[in-house]
Write a structure and sequence with these properties.
The protein is of the alpha/beta class. About 40% of the residues lie in helices and about 15% in strands. The chain is built from 12 helices and 12 strands. Helix 5 links the parallel strand 1 and strand 2. About 45% of the residues are buried.
């Protein structure tokens, strides 16, 4: 027998209206109660009646998601968290993976999501023309990358403050030769590498440390790229005693390169990352933690809220918390090491 909303309400010990609000991401339900209701609904196999809801609201009950690299950890984690929120509220996800310039141009030229979705979650940063194209859809828009932009609800972090805390940690430990593994070859229009690099430069200047271009290398935001970049930094005339990697995946690649060169971390070289990847604790990586899944879930909830409360003013920019997580890969430089 198909479960009904009253069955979920009875099992969860709440009213049917609370179940409806919780599963549709509406306000007025605590996170704890929402999680409990979602779990009960999943256990009972409850889903909202799609046909009845569509006839009543005129909605497609589909959310469009555009992403530059669906296989990358950050984007995959955001997508997974958002999809869980959408699914619990009875929505399907229509995914567009725009990894190549050709695919991206074709998408924004034809806009295949028109009249097929109720809202769009963008995990890429559109330029002005692309933003205008998305706004022309006349549906709620949200993103988890980049800064505030007209017509979008953006859920993100302050990349500059996070990177400053990472580099300043290395400075405070006493390091003067601080390298950086960046992600300059990231997705089109991506501001994250720019913001984190500027933070690196600002903290060096603040500490009176002269910037050495030889201590920067591109790691492509991948483990393999981080390994290549670390190998490049080690080949410098005066290698770094510490390295800030703009992502944990690049930091893990750096750790692999250092191990291959038989260098000890943090005795020979300190390494700090950014993200708090699910494997960061496993390898003891010092990092800047950001709520990656939390950003995806929050963006999804805000989109659903806009659909249920179209007259309400949508939030323009929601900033999520970040924190420095100290583990085993950073320490003061060796007294006789190169500074």
């Amino acid at each position: 027998m198909t479960a009904r909303i009253t069955d979920v309400a009875r099992a969860a010990g709440v009213s049917a209206s609370t179940v409806s609000r919780a599963l549709r991401g509406q306000p007025g339900v605590s996170d704890e109660v929402r999680a409990q209701i979602t779990a009960v609904a999943g256990r009972l196999g409850y889903t909202a009646s799609r046909s009845a809801s569509s006839l009543a609201s005129g909605r497609t009950f589909t959310i469009g998601v555009v992403v530059p690299y669906v296989g990358r950890w950050f984007f995959g984690t955001v997508l997974d968290a958002a999809e869980k929120v959408f699914s619990a509220a009875g929505y399907d996800v229509l995914l567009y993976n725009l990894g190549s310039p050709e695919t991206r141009k074709r998408f924004f030229t034809k806009l295949p999501v028109r009249k097929r979705v109720d809202a769009v979650l963008s995990l890429l940063i559109p330029d002005e023309e692309e933003s205008a194209a998305l706004r022309s859809l006349g549906v709620p828009l949200a993103s988890t990358v980049g800064g505030a932009r007209p017509g979008f609800t953006v859920v993100g972090i302050d990349d500059r403050i996070g990177a400053e805390s990472a580099v300043r940690h290395l400075v405070n430990l006493g390091h003067r030769r601080i390298g950086m593994i960046a992600g300059a070859s990231g997705p089109l229009h991506w501001t994250t590498p720019i913001e984190r690099r500027q933070a690196y430069l600002d903290v060096l200047a603040e500490a009176g440390i002269e910037h050495d271009p030889a201590l920067e290398a591109d790691g492509d935001y991948t483990v393999e790229g981080g390994e290549r970049a670390m190998t490049e930094l080690l080949a410098a005339a005066r290698p770094p005693t510490a390295v800030f990697a703009q992502s944990d995946e690049m930091a893990m690649g750096a750790l692999r390169a250092l191990r291959r060169h038989r260098l000890k971390v943090p005795d020979d070289v300190s390494v700090i990352g950014f993200d708090d990847h699910e494997l960061a604790d496993v390898v003891g990586l010092t990092t800047v933690a950001q709520p990656v899944a939390g950003q995806g879930a929050e963006a999804a909830r805000l989109l659903l809220r806009q659909l249920d409360e179209p007259a309400a003013e949508p939030p323009g920019h929601v900033q999520m918390p970040i924190r420095l997580v100290l583990r085993e890969t950073t320490a003061p430089p060796r007294p006789r090491g190169p500074q």
